[in-house]
Amino acid sequence: MCGIAGLIQLEGVSDADLEPLLHALAHRGPDGQGTYINRTGQVGLVHTRLAIVDLEGGKQPFVSRDGREGLVANGEIYNHQEIRRHLDDYHFDTQSDCEVILPLTKRFGREAYPKLRGMFAYGVWLGVHRTLTLGRDPFGIKPLHYWCDGKRFAFASEIKALLALPFIQATLNRDALWDFFNLRYCPGEETLFDGIKRLPPASVMQVKLEDDHLVTQITSFQGDLPTLSAEGDGTSEDDVATAIEESLSAHMMADVPVGAYLSGGLDSSTLTTLAARKNSHLHTFTLGFGEESDENEDAARLAQSLGTHHHDLISSDELFDHLPAAVMALEEPKINGVQGFLLAQQTRPHVKVALSGLGGDELFLGYSRNEIHHRFARLARWMKRMPIAGRVFENAALAGFRAFGGLRHQHSLRGLLYLARLGEASVAAHLLRNAFDSHLRAIGSPFSREFAAEQSHRPSLGDRFAKDFARYAEGQDANALLVGAVQHELTSKLPNDYLLNEDRVSMAHGLEVRVPFL
User: Fold this and answer.
1) pTM
2) Residues carrying CATH 3.60.20.10, the chain
3) Which of 145, 163, 245 is nearest to 203 (CA)?
4) Cβ 164 vs Cβ 178: under 8 Å
5) Which CATH number fits domain 237-357: 3.40.50.2000, 3.40.50.2300, 3.40.50.620, 3.10.450.50?
6) Which end is more exposed in the chain, N or C (fewer Cβ atoms within 10 Å of the end residue's Cβ)?
7) Max Cα separation, the chain?
8) For 378-392, how does the pLDDT look when each residue is reduced to its tens digit (9 = 90+)?
9) Hey, how many other C-beta atoms are within 10 angstroms of the C-beta on 72?
10) Where are the beta strands (DSSP E) in 332-408?
């Protein structure tokens, strides 16, 4: 795990130009720094290192012996030994897992991407082609941001590094802010900063240097990924168990101690149990705040039964005391990253790597909204086929809530029944959101009214999301819509919210968090 960045300037790149990038990413790589400037002096690469594999030899950037090629990479390539065997004619200088990206890209170009297994973001400069190639892993576990004005191009692990460059201004992206207020994350490639974009998961970007301008192209490998199916694909429970164990084994790869986050929930408990079988000195970490809802007791009992070195981290500090630092790390105005920020802060003195159960809820339908999707998809299908009976049911349900439920529940039910009348796709689209944009319009402050009027030309988020689910709603199987909702979680909310948060708050303290479920 590291911090990476790069800069292309047609008029030339100097060490002084790269210094702001190094400084801004220092927290991601406390174990070393390195830079590379190509032979023509127009391309610079930056790396700050958190040493985990090949502690002595794995320094970056990796540079070819003639100086024409350079590589910076963040993350882990879990199948690097297999790749090395297929590149037996290449002379490797280190045992680093990431070094394989350079010869692989040199031989296969952007088609090297599907051969990599792991969590990664990388930048490869190939002088012979005058091309910079960027890649980001299939689920978007590792972040990669970029900026381009046609004559200059910059990329980095974090937005704050790009903003450290004197020619990139921190200008608010108001469309992205509207989406953020409604979703609590920015979907797609947009960020809260105008002109700064995210490279999508499962994508490769190539930046070609022409004589007087830059040409960029993004290739998506999303279509090469396995997709979920309502009918299933014949995978058995044993197959799933084997896949999890194999993934866990790969994620234990390290030349430093590996620990595990243990919340007491099913996801982290499963991973911790498997990890403890492979490492008798496993350290486990749980963060609590002394509240009754804490799962600390469950986690402590499991840790005791497994014989791990358990750290029950109770925070006596006020949560809001850490909010400014957490928001600075997150690069977005969120409050739900503070817990992860504190957990990483207290875990880092013990280990450099921690396993997390992130992704388990998405893959195994662990969220309560998955059950709601399923039930309301069936209700929507029934109400669509029998509109008169559906309206009778709706009136009866609302009457019952007026008699026995509160006003808040009555309005919630009315909204859900309205969605059911619209159809299954709208149910999925709206339930995946954290709020309706109509709520923001109704807040009533001058800012919200002005902002809502400004955004009125854009389709509502519900309508935009509903289009994503329309194809799932066409089939006869009510489970198809649930599959569509889960697919959307995996490709939108997970990379742009949960995984991005985890990377930010952990790397703020120089801690690598790995997610074996993904």
Assistant:
1) 0.87
2) 2-224
3) 145
4) no
5) 3.40.50.620
6) C
7) 80
8) 666 666 666 666 565
9) 29
10) 353-355
